[in-house]
Amino acid sequence: MSSNHEESDTDQESVLEFERLESTLPPSLKRSASSLLEAIQSTPTHSSTSIQHDSNIKQPQPRHPNENNSYQPIPGRPTTTPNLKNSTFRQNLINKLSKSENGRESSPIPLPKPRFDESIYKPALNAKSSTGVLWATERAGEYGYNQESVGEWANLGQGSPEHGDTIPGSFPRPKSIPISDDSKGYAPTAGITELRTTVANLYNELYRKEKQSKYTYKNVCIVPGGRSGLTRIASIISDCYLSFFLPDYTAYAEMLSLFKNFAPIPVPLKEADNYEIHLKMIKEELQRGVSALLTSNPRNPTGHCMKPDQLKVLHDMCREKCLLIMDEFYSHYYYDDGCTGSSISSAEFVEDVNRDPVLILNGLTKAFRCPGFRVCWIIGPEDYINALSSSGSYLDGGTNAPFQYAAIDFLKPEKVLSEMKALQVHFKMKRDYIISRLTKMGFHFNEKNTPNSTFYLWLNLSHLPGKLSNCLGFFHECLHEKVIVVPGFFFLINPQNLSHLEEVIWYNYVRISYGPEVDHLVKGMDGIERILSRFGCLPYDIKQ
């Protein structure tokens, strides 16, 4: 009798834990979590043994978008929000989420505490803003993760690459930064001239050797990080429709929602198309009056990029009609050219550097593996750069001066080429490792869904049973294995909460980063393997 009582308490803890996890989601994303609960509610309760070993039992699958980005209702599936106060439903839910069913016997990890004390009054505070990576890290912190001392955790949700001297052939990162008298004062909000000149020369050498029009320091604005660069850009554009494509970088949502001087228009891409941006789609956006377009290329989170011939056509279509804002932070994580150190950039297809309305963002953060430096840049026409410099005076005050001087040596063309070769060989090896491990676990990869750039994998969970096919359920189980991933629905960047996008939620995807060191990737893959083993959906015996 006592044993049954203890098991019931454990089951109650499991469901409360999941409810608390769901309660921390932004309101627009709670729908996806609710669909998981509905899927669980509609399925008869089975014993642990029958769930894991009876192959004839069809596991519940949450609803998912069809090719036209609208849900297909499943017969017999409830469509109302689950009533957690209903004792019958609640017991059914407890059974389906119970630790005894999924094999996670007991966990030394404490239950997460509510994030906010609602009894404390916080005037004027907006506590709802949070990017997907930050949300995932915060939830992991409630399970014992310490960002400054990761210990046994594998953070496969991080948006930064390994930043130590861990890559063969890579130049050593500085252990100290000299501080000259010149760098003790405020740097210009456009950045120091020497670094601006160095960036311009690098782009001319890599992408514009045969072009008559060349970049100069007047075409470069140094900014304290990519988000700061995007915020500056958002502050200087006005009275326009700005299109961006889904899924994409989660921080876009916060940036786009802060400014009311333009109207952001989300354009969902199709899962059946592997989320590829077709030029026909861009043409349609231009025809309906869009005069600014924002995209990451290579793309976060899918790990793909536009081909050079596509980029050329894109620039020809938009020249003098539409401002192109090209987030190119992953341009050097490019594996289609044999890891030769080559990269892909819109700079190659700009005809006149002061006439073509193209803004390019990049920096030390990703390719040079120095995210802590907060030294990035925007390249574009002089008029735009002047406006961006002015906006920095009231938005962020400019970039750290000593780190700007230190960055100059990083950007010599011959050093960059050698560095990029080393980077591409190393990260392609890491990509191939996680794809190999996941393939053995039953995930399927082909040319379309294998990333050819970035250090991200957009992983489809739809073939997994029950809870694991939902990104929140998968994330929840990963926390118990000390693994962090980013649920796919955070890449639904919908700053205006447009009603027709409510159904476009990537509940069955997570983003996995292979940015961390190899030993962290091994821990992460081992943790995912243990989860699939507990749910009885590995194609092999984990003990072998």
Automatic annotation (TrEMBL):
<dbReference type="GO" id="GO:0008483">
    <property type="term" value="F:transaminase activity"/>
</dbReference>
<keyword id="KW-0663">Pyridoxal phosphate</keyword>
<dbReference type="InterPro" id="IPR050596">
    <property type="entry name" value="AspAT/PAT-like"/>
</dbReference>
<protein>
    <recommendedName>
        <fullName>Aminotransferase class I/classII large domain-containing protein</fullName>
    </recommendedName>
</protein>
<keyword id="KW-0808">Transferase</keyword>
<dbReference type="InterPro" id="IPR015421">
    <property type="entry name" value="PyrdxlP-dep_Trfase_major"/>
</dbReference>
<feature type="region of interest" description="Disordered">
    <location>
        <begin position="1"/>
        <end position="87"/>
    </location>
</feature>
<keyword id="KW-0032">Aminotransferase</keyword>
<comment type="similarity">
    <text>Belongs to the class-I pyridoxal-phosphate-dependent aminotransferase family.</text>
</comment>
<dbReference type="InterPro" id="IPR015422">
    <property type="entry name" value="PyrdxlP-dep_Trfase_small"/>
</dbReference>
<dbReference type="Pfam" id="PF00155">
    <property type="entry name" value="Aminotran_1_2"/>
</dbReference>
<feature type="domain" description="Aminotransferase class I/classII large">
    <location>
        <begin position="177"/>
        <end position="495"/>
    </location>
</feature>
<dbReference type="InterPro" id="IPR004839">
    <property type="entry name" value="Aminotransferase_I/II_large"/>
</dbReference>
<feature type="region of interest" description="Disordered">
    <location>
        <begin position="96"/>
        <end position="115"/>
    </location>
</feature>
<feature type="compositionally biased region" description="Polar residues">
    <location>
        <begin position="67"/>
        <end position="87"/>
    </location>
</feature>
<feature type="compositionally biased region" description="Polar residues">
    <location>
        <begin position="31"/>
        <end position="59"/>
    </location>
</feature>
<dbReference type="GO" id="GO:0030170">
    <property type="term" value="F:pyridoxal phosphate binding"/>
</dbReference>
<dbReference type="GO" id="GO:0006520">
    <property type="term" value="P:amino acid metabolic process"/>
</dbReference>
<dbReference type="InterPro" id="IPR015424">
    <property type="entry name" value="PyrdxlP-dep_Trfase"/>
</dbReference>
